[in-house]
Design a protein that fits this description.
By secondary structure, this protein is mostly helical. It has nine helices and three strands. α6 (about 120-130) links the parallel β2 and β3. α3 (about 50-60) packs parallel to α4 and α5 (about 85-95) packs antiparallel against α6 (about 120-130). It is rod-shaped and about 105 Å long. It starts with 8 loop residues before the first helix and ends with a helix.
Length: about 170
């Protein structure tokens, strides 16, 4: 709807009112686009550089100048969903202190490795990670299987392990 439509018929024919209403219509269009832009800047998923900078300042995040917008969004969402310390505390509640957490930022991947003694908690950790970690991050929760180095460190001999299958040696606590 245009501003001129709100005027009485007598005023619609006057040149000055036509020019005034046309100018007003242009300003209202600019205002509509400005409101849309402000609305987009308020939310992490639609924010541009200005909105992300504002959120980074609020959350005390320092971001290198060469980071792309997707990675900046990821950092903000991670901070809003809980910091690394909170994630580690949540895992500690489930399994204790024996686990490894690795971040692969360039691949948008989070890896959590549990020892074999915590095998029964693996599903609970996966579920907690699904609920906690931002959706654009690939979650990998796996078990740390026995390796040759671990067997060597425990000074287990081939004779001591001969009654076990390969699967038992690899997947059971020694």
């Amino acid at each position: 709807m245009k501003l001129i439509d709100y005027l009485p018929q007598v005023l619609k024919e006057i040149y000055e009112f036509k020019v005034l209403c046309d100018t007003g219509d242009k300003e209202i269009e600019k205002l509509k686009y400005g409101i849309d832009d402000i609305f987009k800047e308020m939310f992490v998923y639609t924010a541009g550089n200005e909105g992300l900078t504002r959120l980074e300042n609020i959350l005390n995040l320092t971001v290198p100048a060469d980071d792309d917008i997707d990675f900046r969004r990821f950092q903000i969402l991670t901070k809003l969903n809980g910091s690394e310390r909170n994630l580690i505390k949540k895992i500690q509640i489930i399994v204790g202190d024996d686990f490894d957490v690795d971040y692969y930022w360039s691949e948008y991947r989070l890896s959590v490795k549990l020892p074999l003694k915590n095998k029964k908690y693996l599903d609970a950790v996966k579920q907690m990670l699904d609920e906690t970690v931002p959706l654009n991050l690939i979650i990998e929760a796996v078990l740390k299987y026995n390796t040759y180095g671990m067997i060597k460190d425990k000074k287990l001999t081939y004779g001591a392990l001969r009654n076990n299958t390969y699967k038992q040696i690899r997947e059971e606590e020694l």
